[in-house]
Amino acid sequence: MENTSEIIFDQLVYSCAFESYRGHEEFIPDHFLGFQISGETHAFHEHGKTVIKENTVVLVRKNQLIRTIKYPSDHENYQFVSITLDDETLRQYAAENRILVNAHLPADQKLFFEPDDFFKSYFASLMPYINKTKEIPPRLAAVKVQEAIELLLLSNPDLGNVLFDFSEPHKIDLREFMNKNFMFNVSVDAFARLTGRSLSGFKRDFYKTFEMTPKQWLKEKRLQEAYYLIKNKDRKPSDIYLDLGFENLSHFYSSFKKKFGVTTTEV
């Protein structure tokens, strides 16, 4: 069966899967607070792999690329619920409470929480809306989002330095970033934003750095990585083409043959 994700209201999303499901690459534009109700989420990102286990609360930072695999447990479907904490809501909260950021947490810090009584009660309070016993009025939805912010700050006041950091992503080293993230099949717009550049600035800096367009470089880089994995790691094309950013296997085969002059079985 297919994975299902349902937006209950603008900022509450519920995801359910009946069998293992590989999600698409996602650009995460806003922070979100998530709870793994059942099953596991395996998240692949710039800093490696993170496993979100059942009954775990996690704060996911904005402005990053993530690929997920969703695994049901032996006795239950996969279920994950998340509340989006968008900049507009967070700016309003910070202004009303006169909050200023005075430090920055490391970008690779994992933000997990054991669900205490407050978090358990909070996510339990969302279940009636997920189960559609009632429609949630917009004002009540706003209260539930604010409650999520309050709980995060109660659990760790330093999280304010994550939530209320509204600075634009600074211009980072393009070569280093692209070599870490080339396998994510997202738009050039997303790559530009994540490197702290406008789209035109990204394309200009990219050509200066790599002497080819982003589209050309991404295809070359992904094919070179595929060749290495097939030849030196004995990996099967069917196991790696999605992880390297190719959308379908037939396109991967034809691109590989065109690039190297041999098929994958002849490497």
Condensed summary:
With 267 residues, the chain is α+β, with helices and mostly antiparallel strands.
Description:
The chain is α+β, with helices and mostly antiparallel strands. The chain has helices spanning 87-96, 117-130, 138-155, 160-163, 174-181, 188-194, 199-210, 214-233, 237-240, 249-260, and strands at residues 4-9, 12-17, 21-22, 26-28, 31-38, 40-45, 48-52, 56-60, 64-71, 78-85, 112-113. The protein folds into two domains: 4-163, Sandwich (Jelly Rolls), CATH 2.60.120.10; 174-266, Orthogonal Bundle (Arc Repressor Mutant, subunit A), CATH 1.10.10.60. The strands form two sheets. Strands 1-2-10-5-8-11 form a six-stranded antiparallel sheet. Strands 3, 4, 6, 7 and 9 form a five-stranded antiparallel sheet that branches. The protein is globular. The two termini are 36 Å apart. Keywords: DNA-binding, Transcription, Transcription regulation. This is AraC-type DNA-binding protein. Residues 172-267 form the HTH araC/xylS-type domain.
